[in-house]
Design goal:
Belongs to the TonB-dependent receptor family. There is one protein chain. By secondary structure, this protein is mainly beta. 7% of the residues lie in helices and 49% in strands. The chain contains 11 helices and 47 strands. The strands form 9 sheets. The protein has a 22-stranded antiparallel β-barrel. It has a 5-stranded antiparallel β-sheet with strand order 3-2-1-26-27, with no helix packed on it.
Amino acid sequence: MIHPPIIRCFSTIWVKTNSLIFNSFVLALTLQLPTHATAAFPFDDSLSTQNGRLTAFRHTSSTDTVSAKNLRRIVTANSLQGLQGQVAGLLVRSNSGEPGGAATLQIHGPGRFGDTTPLVVVDGMIIGQTDNLNWLAPNAIETVEVLKDATSMGLYGMRGSNGVILITTKKGETGRPRVTVDLYTGVQRTTRMPQLLNTRQYISYINDSRSNGGLIPAFKLTNQVSLDTLLGTSTDWLGALFRPAPVRSAYVSVAGGKESARYLIAADYFKQDGVILGSDFERLSLRLNTDFDLTDNLKVGQNLTLSQSVRHANDGTGGRTPIEQALKSAPYLSITNPRRIGGYEGTTYLDANNDALNPIGLSVLTNDRHTSLNLIGDLFGEWTLFDGLIYRATLGFDLRNFDRAYSMPAFNMGEYNINLTASLARAKQTNYNTLLHHQLSYSHTLDAHSLTVLLAGSRQTYRNDDILAYADDLPGNDIRSLTAGQSSRNRTVGGTYAFYRVVSLMGQLSYDFQKKYWLTAALRRDGSSRFGPGHRFGAFPSVGAGWYLNKERFLESVPYLNTVKLRVGWGRSGNDNVGDFQYASLIAQNYNYPFGPTNSFLGVGAFPSTLPNIGIRWETTTTSNVGLDVSALENSIKLRVDYFRKQTTNLLVEVPLPASVGAAAPLTNAGIVDNSGIDLSLTGERSNDWISFSLAGFASWQKNKVVSLGDRPNPVLGGLVHEETVTATAVGQPVGSYYGFQRVGIFQTRDEIIKNPSLTGTEPGDIRYSDLNKDGKITDADKTFLGSPIPTVYYGFSASVSVAGFDLSVLLQGASGNQLYNATAYWLNGYLGRYNAGTEVLSRWTREKPSTTQPRADASGTRNFRPSDRFVEDGSYFRLKSLQLGYTLPESLTSTFGASRLRVYVGAQNLFTKTKYSGFDPEFASNQALGEGIDVAQQPQSRMFLGGLQLNF
C-alpha cells in the first residue's frame, strides 16, 4: 500500500507559513518572503577555549575539563562514554551494550519530560542533542569541557538548558612531523546471566500453571511428541545467543608545521562485534586540520572529519529484543530444524501458547544494516584589526547520509513466526546542518582594570529529507532490488521533509579589577522557526561574579594556599527541542467517510490529526549557583564545591482531552520542575624524578521534584510494560517515578481472601495488595509511588601511578539512591504460564509447600504480575570501570629504531560490579525522562580484556 499523503505547515523566520502537501510521488513547496524580512546578523555558539572566548568566563563559572588521556580510559565507539565517573554533576549511562550504541548524558538531573541530553558542540559546530558521536574517534579529541552552571549555560540561550558539552579536537603543531600510532585489540564477554528452567522443570511449571488456571495441561503423552523425546532436549537459549566478541582499533596521525602553517592528518579504524549474534559496528574516519598565518594579523584554517560507519543491528522484532525472546523460549525445542524452511525450529499452537520467536534463527536470517557517511567540520578566518580587536568568521557544516537496508528471507519457524516470501526495506536519509557565525571581540587593560567585550551573531539551518520503500514477495532470498517484488499491492513508498532555522544575537562582557574581582555578564536573543508567529524569539541573560580571597590581606600570608575563589552565578537558558509544528494542526488524508442514505458509500477525505497551540514556546530553565575553588601546596591539591538550583518552567505537558475530540492532545507550557544539589571535586597530584601519582574524586548529590503540572489534575503517565503504565509524574514527586501497587504478602487461605480486599478471582497463593484508600477494594486508586530512577548520589574515583617506566590506572564509578523497574523479572518470575522462567519459580507457592514470598503459577490470570513493588529493585551499584597496566620502554632502547616513545599495556573494563539488582546490568538508560529505568532486556554492558601499544616517532 502507499503511505497516505499528509499536509503540514512549514515556516521559518524569514518565510511565511505555507501548506506542504506531499506523498510518495509529489512534493510541492512554495515559499514567499515577507515584506518585513531583513538580513539576519548571526551569532556563533562556538565559545570553546581554542578561540579564547571562555577564558574570562572561567573565573566566574564551573567548567570541568577532561583530558584526552583520561577520556580514553574507557574503550568505546562513543567518545562521550569516556566521561563516565570523571565529572561531578554529569551522569553518564549507556543506552545498551550494543556496538556503536548511544550513551545518555544528564547534567544535574532531568529538567524536562523529554530528551535531557546536553547540547554537543565540536570545534564550535553545534552537532545537536541526539547525536551519539560514534563518528568521532576518541583519539581525535584533545579536551572535553562540561558547562553546567548558570553563567556558561546561559551563553547557549534557547538550547543550553540541558547543559553543554564542548569538544576540542587535536590540532597541528609547529616543528618536525610527529607520528603517533595507537593500536589495541581485545575480547568482550557478558558479565552475568540468569538461571533458567531446564526442560523437566519447565514442563512441571507449565502444567502446574495451566492446572491452576483451569486449563488442560500442555504436556501429556498424547501430544504430538512423547515426553521422553521432550526430555531429551534442553536448549540453553541464552548461551547460544551470547558469544565472546572481539574489538580492535587502529589510529595513526601525523602532525607538524612551521610558524606560519600547521597541519594534522589522522586516520582511524574501529571494529567491534556485539556479544549478541548479528550485531557489530565498524568505523573508518579521516581527519584533516590546518591553519595558516597569511599575514601578521590574518589567519585562516579548517577542521574536517570524513567518516563512514556500518552497523549491523539486532534489536529484535515486534518490540521484543533477542534477549527477551531467549528468556521466553521453551528449553525442549532445538535451535535448528532442517525440515523447516530456513532451517530453524519454532513453537506451534500446541506449545502452551508460547509465542516466543527463535532468537538464533532471527539473528542469523535477518540482516539490518545501517550505513552512515558523514562530513563534519568548519572553515574559519580570523583578522586582528588592531591590538585587542579581533574579528572571526566561521562556516560550519554537518552533512550526513544514512542508508538502512533491512532484509528478511522466507522461513518457517513455527505457526507464530512464518514469513512465506522474502522481503526488503530500504530507507535513505540526508541531513544538512550548516552554521554561519560572525564574532567581534575586544580586550583592553588599563592599570588594574581589564575589560573584554564580545558581540556575535549566528544563523543555523537544519534540513532533513528521507525516503522509505518496502517490498515483499521477492522471487529469492538474495534479491536486493525493490522492484523485484512480485506483488505491487504490498509495495510501500513514503518519505518526509523537515526544515527549521535558528538565529541568534549575543553580547558578552567581562571585567576584572586587580585580577581579584571578576564580573561577567551576557545577553543572548534567540529565534527559532519551530515556534509560531509571535513566540519565536526570547532573551536569555546570565551574570556571574568571582572573588579571589587569597589575594586579600587576611589570606595572602597563608603559605600553603594558592587559590581561594568564591563564585556566584545566575542565568536563564531554554530548550527548543520540542519537535516541529507543535503550534500547527497536522492534517491526515485518505480517511474514509461513509455517506449516503445507508452510509454505504465511502468518500476519501482529510481530518486534523492534532490540535494546534499557537502559543507554544520554549521551555525555560533558570539556574543559580554558589561555588568555592581552593588549591594548595603549589596547586597539587584542588577542591571545588558547588551548590546549584535549577528550575525549569514552561514545561510541555499534554492537555487532557476527551476521546470524542478525535485528535491527539496538544502540548501546552504548564509544568515546573526543580533540581538542586551539591557537586564536589577533589584532585591531587605529586611527582618527582622517580615517581608520579594522581588522585581524583567526584561526587554529586541531587534532588528532583515536580512543582507544577499546570491545570492538569492527574499525573502524566509514562513507560509501559505489558500494556500497563508503570511510571507516573506528579506534583511533589521526582520525574518519571514508578507507580503501582504495594504488596503486603501472599494469601495463604480462602478465609484470608474473604476478610481482606483482593482482586477479582483471587485464590490462595496469589499476591495480596495494599488497600491504600481503605475503600474495601483493590483498584487503580490504590496505586502509589514506588521509587525513582533518578540517583540521589553518583560518583567516580580515579587514580594513577607511574614508577620506573611502569604505570597503573584505575577508574571506579557508581550511583545510589535510585530504583529500577525490572521488566526482565516480569517475564522470568511473573508466572505468565506459557514462557520459560527463572529458577526462582521453583520455590513458588503450592498447596503442598506454601510460600510467603513467591506466588503460585497461574496461566489464566494477571493478578500476580500487575505493576507493583515486586518488580521495583534497588538500582544502586559500584563498578570497577577500568583497570590498565602499562610499561614504557626506555628512550635509549626506542631510539635505536627511530621511535621517541613506545608503551605497551593490558587492561580490563567492567571487571567488577557490586549491586543488589538482579537483572543483567544496573547501568542502562532509555533517554526519556518519563520512561527511564525500565529494563526491557536490552543488550547489557560487557566485560572486556584488551592489550595494545602506543608508538611515537
